[in-house]
Amino acid sequence: MSIFAGAVFGLAAGACLMAAGCAKGSSRSLPSGSKMEAFSCNGREVTRSDINEDGQPDIEHVGRGGRRFCSKADMNFDGKMDMERFYEDDGETVAHERHDFDFDGRIDQLSFYEDGRLARKELDTNFNNAIDTWLWCSEGWVTRSERDRKSNGRPDVWEVYEEGLIVEASYDDNNDGRPEKWDVFRGGKVVLTKYDDDGDGTPDRTDEMPLLSMGAADDALRCEQVEEAEIATTEPKEPAAQGSEEVSQGEP
Description:
Blueprint: H1 3-20, E1 45-50, E2 59-64, E3 67-73, E4 83-87, E5 94-99, E6 109-114, E7 117-123, E8 133-138, E9 141-147, E10 157-162, E11 165-171, E12 181-186, E13 189-195, E14 205-208, E15 245-249
Parallel strand pairs: 1-15
Antiparallel strand pairs: 1-2, 2-3, 3-4, 4-5, 5-6, 6-7, 7-8, 8-9, 9-10, 10-11, 11-12, 12-13, 13-14
């Protein structure tokens, strides 16, 4: 299994926790290493909705200057917002998102969009408040990724994908900033490994992987994006007046 695939599975487990509602918290702080600007989803033009009718708002839409600026969602109904979505100037096109999957008040995943399509993600896969995995997306597939295994703020694994299937992985095991080992994949399985023994940046020897030792193939990785319906959008026809707020129950 590729290193990034393992990271994805780790965050998938966090998503299961979200569905079970077994932890609490809200997204408030950006993890170290993130490239996202640290601005807040706050404002005076606020519309709130209580989806599960427990008396607490689960969805908030925040407007600025007469347009929707951002939305927030309480995904595990603990009274704290766990997801934030920001919009482009039209108030409709998604610009970026922030997720707190383990509900500890710290952001674990940041998603960047281009023209409304998911283009890049930053992940904190071990929930230590530091970005350790970066991935790039195209047409819904992962195209490449970088991972920081040593938690020093620098990537030491680089992976290349075609239609979501990994084709090559490079590893910097001695922490000098460049790879000394390369894995080549076919059909999601490692078929050979190349090594740079003298440190000149080029492979010196190659080991082919025996067929019986290849193991299971990695699945193709998609760049999943949260659909608009998944945060139960209850966008108002017009933003509430300055300094006011509107609270509704259930679906509009």
